[in-house]
Amino acid sequence: MGVEQKLGNMGVVTTTLENMVNWSRTNAMWPMLFGLACCAIEMMAAQASDYDMSRFGMELMRASPRQSDLMIVAGRCSKKMGPVLRRLYDQMPEPKWVIAMGDCASCGGVFNNYAIFQGVDEVVPVDVYVAGCPPRPEALIHGVLTLYEKVKGDTFKEYAVKYK
Amino acid sequence: MSQIEEVSVDQFKHLVSERALTGETMLLNMGPQHPSTHGVLRVLLELDGETIINCVPDIGYLHTGVEKNMEAKTYQKAEVMTDRLDYMNPLGNNLSYVLAVEKLVDLDVPARAQAIRVILVELQRIASHMVWLGAFGLDLAAMSMFLYCFRERERILDIFELVSGQRMMTTYIRPGGVWRDVPVEFDKAVREFVQMFHKRVDEYERLLTRNPIFIDRLVGIGYLSVETALQYGVTGPNLRASGSDWDLRKARPYMGYEQYDFNIPTRPEGDTYARYIVRIEELRESLKIIEQALNKMPLGPVNSDNRKFVPPPRAEIGVSMEALIHHFKLWTEGFPAPKNSVYSAVESPRGELGMYLEGDGGPKPYRIHLRTPSFDNLAVLPEIVKGHLVADLVAILASIDIVLGDIDR
What we know:
The structure holds two protein chains of two kinds.
Chain A: H1 4-7, H2 17-27, E1 31-32, H3 38-47, E2 70-74, H4 82-91, E3 97-101, H5 102-107, E4 128-130, H6 137-152, H7 156-162
Parallel strand pairs in A: 1-2, 2-3, 3-4
Helix pairs in contact in A: 3-6
Chain B: H1 18-21, E1 26-30, E2 42-48, E3 51-58, H2 66-71, H3 79-83, H4 90-105, H5 111-139, H6 143-164, E4 173-174, E5 177-178, H7 185-208, H8 212-218, H9 226-232, H10 237-240, H11 248-251, H12 272-296, H13 314-317, H14 321-333, E6 341-348, E7 351-359, E8 365-371, H15 373-379, H16 381-385, H17 390-399, H18 404-408
Antiparallel strand pairs in B: 1-2, 2-3, 4-5, 6-7, 7-8
Helix pairs in contact in B: 4-5, 5-6, 5-12, 5-17, 6-7, 7-12
């Protein structure tokens, strides 16, 4: 599981700095405790006994945006909530990622009306969309693992452009 | 995108005391992003030290426009919106809406469908109370409650998935009956759950009910008198914890609740602890109802045979051209409802959930208005938190069990 098997008895491992940084980022990604609507209940279920997201290094939901790396927008985002969502995103330290959980956060879902943003990508940049209304906890975990794949492929050069 | 509006104190000085304007007391925003507001509620607090002088809830952060959106859909299709109102209680919302539609078009429901509805709605009540109990424990730093409660909730969601294919937003209860009959495994699955859950409720009580820290934080906190509760229109467990035994399942029976033998748990104290006790007792009463409904469940059809409103069964569509056309017409055009207005209410886990429905002779509702229990239960919050500490506000807010989807809709 860990690095021990790969080490053998040499005690030395060779890798690139990028790989090591990305590996450590994926194994301690703290999501922000930010539930908007129905999907928040499934997000709680993903944290709880049966699904236990902490297997993937995500057991620590932070209530403060200053301490989190990942924003899971769980639920429909209303026009009144949009500016608040943006402010919370701006308060998160870089590097930061966003998962749009559920149909409402991805594209408006069943609520095609005056009150709801048709996808939170109108407000914050989204890395992974998780479909479902609401998505099962497995779907959320799959979304997080998909995000890990994305993070593992990141390069420092891209970071420099993205967060200049 | 609109910006956050900057407001000056002048705009809300009528809500706070004069001491706030001189800076003697502190104004503090709790939310809209706060782990213990149970969603996106913002509470403006005026504090003297740590004591709450004024509390102004600010809602609307989850305003979804459900009522307006439902007017644009036919009666069958508008039902998916009701699932997502009070997201702890999707089946109960379905039931409330479907009862209103059935009242509007005068549609009868077979006895088997009624029993299935009662079982599922009571299971949903348990599931909702499980989320409440878990979050309540979490707010009072009893983390293990959250894990235990969600463990049991998953078992209920497994049953919902068994009957409908969805965990939360099932839309299983339809006008005229239910979507389809329950599978044969349903009986066994529910019985196993009921048997297991009796012991689990005792387990929660062992963890919390006589826990000295728990009692210290709850007893005497957030007193709500029955007069104030009635003035504000508080319903559900919050009202019953203040001494009134008003429960729509007994007072205005629907769906055959009059044939089941169950009690309405009440407490006279009206504090946060009483609200906890009432909900725990409700879990046991719901189990009683489920057991009785399961034993009594008759055989027979689960949908009304009034084909004007209920689509033909799937098996018939394969062999009958008329049934196919009928099915197509019903789902594309919907059924017309008379020009009339009805109100139907059910007892949701949070209180009286009412649907006011007005038809205009066409296939779409002319107006829908929802009487949601959390809205009234939240309205009484400023009355009951005054004089308490901020830490008590967390306990009180958790104990009145609000769901923001229910308030803002």
